[in-house]
Design brief:
The protein is of the alpha+beta class. It has a domain of about 80 residues. The protein has 1 helix and 4 strands. Strand 1 and strand 2 form a beta hairpin.
Length: about 120
Amino acid sequence: MEWVRVRIRRDPDGQIVVEPIGVVGIEPDALAAPALSAPLVHREERIGEIDCGPKRDGTFSTQDQELLTAIGLQAALAIRNAALTAELAERLAEIEHQTQELSASRTRLEQRSTPTRFRPDHRR
């Protein structure tokens, strides 16, 4: 095939934007009608698509479409897993930061509540 483009849907600020994340043989934003296309679907949610340009020799078959669809399902799962991993890493960083803050707060409280010992002046 002459080109391949993978695009995913993002939702920044409530607006759906289709953004190329991988391209071969074509500019990311080039206007071109795909000869073969498959959705990236995860749990009935369309998160993007894989578009392929014309085949160099002949036309695409039903088997080509089935294969691209299967690849699309696997790619959608991998993209979703990557997003979940990034979300978990972000939450872990937040928890680690909160743990450090709590530890510092605990140390300050312990220092304030520790009674100072009376030490008589031995200089008499």
